[in-house]
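Obj: model holo form, ligand = dinuclear copper ion.
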Amino acid sequence: PAAAEAALPPSNPGTPPMSDSPWSLLPAASANAEALDTLYIFFWILCGIAFVGMIGVQAYFMWKYRKPAHGHAKTSPLTHNGKLEFIWSAIPTFFFVILFAWGEIEYMKQVTPPPDALDVRVTGQKWSWTIEYPEVKGCSLTNDLYVPVGQPMRLTMTSMDVIHSFYLPAFRLKKDVVPGRYTVLWFEATKPGLYPLMCTEYCGDEHSSMVGRVHVVPQEEYGAVLAKACELKQGDTESTEDFGARVLTRGGCASCHTTDGTVKTGPSFKGLFGKTETLADGSTVTVDENYIRESILEPNAKIVSGFSPQMPSFAGRFDDKQIAALIAYIKAQK
Ligand code: CUA
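Output (holo structure tokens):
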């Protein structure tokens, strides 16, 4: 099971399932999404009726007043028609007011989290999402958000570096995540499943890797599922290397580092251990246990030439055992 988890792409929710609804392309998986889709469909039908009505009248008049076979008939000297003008102003106004009121009601609901909402803290950083659950002490997940069905969730979000944007297409929600302030988002998931979480604000090289997963689970399973997800200890029968692979997945390392030799924002782990690297100042360093440890805790102290200081520190996020496992895993990538 550990190997299977390690083999998972770090944070790729895959293609979202298609919706059953003929009106939208994405499944609607929150109370908010269903309400917004109803409004959207109403708007769509209204526009359709208006479009067909206007084009229909135009087509009819073009046909009715087409050029006669023998010369032009004299047109009527009409200047205006008060009754008609009132009708064609009043009907659209009536529908505009309905749209405004309906939109306002939905908007107010969307910005007012219910008092019984469960709190979650979200921190965006280049290029992953850190998700913390105050109810589970010390629980910090990368790119995985666990949610019980039918339970309102309140997300308090901030960024460690630049502006990101937290986007849940299946919940029809999107909000900027801004350094130096908190933004709040809430939702209530209605269907169990796995849904994509994306960053929709261009935030640098690996913006497109900044994707995560929302796991919507039944209420009664939530506590156990979250406790298991939060636990990051080496299993009894698990090798240190396999545990390292799990720590890597959890830590979001794969947003920037590969294990197949491809260079993304950071060096690839393939064949990295034991290599002699040249640093930006021209000095050299051998990639050993101490260098990897330092690079995790203080990433910008000794940067390999050709790379830029982009990595956040993982001090306080990985403990010694987890770091040792990461080193074992990196060492094994021959
Ligand atoms: Cu974070 Cu784009």
